[in-house]
Amino acid sequence: MQNRIRILLGVAFSVIAAIAIVINVDWAALSEEFSSANYWWVIPSSLALSFSLWVRGMRWRELLGRVPSQSRMFYVTNIGYFVNNVIPLRAGELVRIYLASRDEGVSVMRALSTALVERLMDILVVFGLALIALPFVEGDNWLLASGRSLAALAVLGIVGLFVLAAVYHTVMPIVHNIANKLPRLIQTIVNQLDSFVLSIRDVGVKGWFLGFLWTIFIWSLSAFSIFTMLFCFIPDAPWYMGLIATASIALGGSVPSAPSGVGLYEASAIAALVLFGIDTEIGLAFGILNHLMNFVILTIFGLLGLNREEQTLNELTASASQFMRNIRARA
To answer: Which structural domain range is residue 101 located in?
Structure first.
């Protein structure tokens, strides 16, 4: 029941965004934008995006102690993104955790904890991009206001995890002693927390530092990809427009939506370019083309990954769902 509500909520947000776009767009002007676009810029944009996807796989491999091979982590990561594009509730996150944990030496908790910290690192770096570019934006900085709370939560989350890891040997024995006198459910939760914090400790300071450097590299490539895609429609686009568009699209991706973020992705692109006085039709054309490129590339890499894993999409999602049920049963 709860999952159905979340699916309906995501679809509702996507539909509302799509309706808002349809009402306000001039379709003749949109067609003109597509007709006059310089599509040669799609080539460097797609190459930068593809390279960023490889780097994402290398970041997760670093956080997992370099246990899985480079090629497998690339495909596992992209299978997850592909599943997110076609199945609701960000099921791809569960799928990639399931696939990573099939490697010998990678525990479920290690895969889960590192996947969570990846997202926190992403939020921090994206917010940093927005901070760099916002001084060049005139008017109301809604992007700063929208991203500030997410960045604050990310900072609190990362600091909290590192504090727990630092005081692990001091605090956890006390917590276990208290939990042993409480109902079994509390003991189970504490045991899971213990495994989670231990997984954070296992990465080590060097691992987290390198992971953060990988994250900066990832979003630099993503920003370059978006920046070059802007040249299709805005030949004189300044560099900071690419940063703002990257941050806005990433922020829009944090909102519940239909699979692949349809509607919200395009609305986020329009909202970013409106800050620079760019027409809605140009923003929509850019959003559609960039979204399409992302979808095609993630689909190609995702399908190649499924072939490598020798599983169909249905088989994989069923296996991942059973995997989650088994974890809950053991808990």
So the answer is: 2-25+43-330
